[in-house]
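Pipeline run #58 for the internal structure catalog. This entry was flagged by the ingest filter as a single-chain record with no existing model, so it goes straight to prediction. Upstream metadata was stripped on purpose; only the residue string is passed forward. Reviewer on rotation: M.T. Logging verbosity set to normal.
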Amino acid sequence: MIFDSPNAPVSRYMRRIDAESLGKNELDSAHKSGICFNNLLFNEVGWFVDSKRESSGEPDYEILGNPGEPDRGPLFTCCMMEERIFSHENGRFHNWWYADLYDDLIVFYAPFKDGEKDTVPVKAWRRYNQVWRGKE
């Protein structure tokens, strides 16, 4: 399922397809590129933040929340994610991929090559129309 905006209802249902079935023309069509991750990445980042605090005295960063809330540590920002997690500066974090989102397709790429998107997709899902059974 994909949510196209923060408050949008589910707008696309996707089914897994064979990534090798995608042709160059299809992958070269108009799309948005970004990073996709699952909730397990937060566990890894939490462990990383805790270990940095214990080993070098860094602040006890908050991964989620509002920076102005009382009794909260400083926020681990998007810029910090880019610099410290997605750059591979501190080793390879799992559970995230580079992703290209098309009108009817999402394609994942492994970020193993020098912090850059690999050229061969590792996973792909294609849009399908969800059919709901009518009430009888």
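catalog note: The first helix runs from residue 24 to 28.
catalog note: The chain has a mean pLDDT of 77.
status: ready for reviewer M.T.
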